[in-house]
Design brief:
mainly alpha; Cytochrome C3; two-stranded antiparallel ribbon; binds heme C
Length: about 120
């Protein structure tokens, strides 16, 4: 018997390994399909950083932004996950403020509160 060739793996074990490999592949395929593109929510409520009686949480409408490409906002500006931020953040040019700065789009400060804090 030569000592430099390793013993072959028991067949049962390697079969189980490759089955797991296929499971992992299948799972990967299921979760990697661009499902997101088909489940675009019309309106998204931005979760307040701190609970408050008013104004109502701001509403973002994909519909009123349909002149923009998805990638102008995702994933750079908005990660497509619930995310809290404040007017201070927007004044610093982040989130909605990255466009609503009075140059690319109307400044937040020049818009009606109810334009964003809409009950609907
Ligand atoms: C361009 C959209 C927009 C406009 C216009 C707007 N807000 Fe907001 N506001 C937001 C977003 C987005 C948040 C973060 C989510 C939330 O807390 O509702 C927010 C948060 C807030 C908050 C809590 C956080 C903070 O920064 O204090 C208050 C209070 C608030 N807004 C008041 C107002 C008032 C008063 C006006 C009108 C003078 C106004 N907002 C106009 C989008 C807007
Ligand atoms: C003008 C900016 C903007 C554009 C353009 C935009 N989105 Fe969004 N999207 C948002 C914001 C804001 C949210 C809520 C915050 C977050 O989830 O990051 C959001 C949330 C989402 C979510 C998660 C919703 C949830 O319930 O959490 C999906 C999915 C999404 N967008 C898909 C898209 C697709 C697909 C496009 C292009 C057809 C698109 N968005 C274009 C701003 C935008
Ligand atoms: C990628 C740039 C961009 C970002 C980011 C963005 N907006 Fe806008 N938004 C626009 C533009 C441009 C318009 C003007 C309408 C148009 O021409 O598409 C607009 C219009 C609006 C309007 C007026 C819609 C109407 O009734 O005509 C509201 C309200 C608004 N945005 C809220 C928000 C809020 C809230 C956020 C953040 C959650 C946000 N926007 C983020 C570009 C942006």
């Amino acid at each position: 018997m030569s000592s430099d060739s390793p013993a072959p793996r028991p067949p049962a074990l390697s079969a189980r390994r490759s089955f797991r490999g296929w499971l992992a592949l299948l799972g990967g395929a299921l979760f990697a399909t661009p499902i997101l593109a088909f489940t675009l929510p019309q309106d998204v409520r931005i979760p307040p950083v701190k609970a408050r009686p008013q104004p109502v949480p701001a509403l973002f409408s994909h519909w009123s932004h349909n002149t923009q490409h998805c990638y102008s906002c995702h994933p750079g500006v908005f990660p497509q996950a619930p995310l809290g931020f404040t007017h201070q953040d927007m004044r610093e040019g982040r989130f909605c403020g990255s466009c609503h700065d009075g140059k690319s789009a109307k400044a937040v400060s020049a818009m009606r509160c109810e334009g964003c804090h809409v009950a609907r």
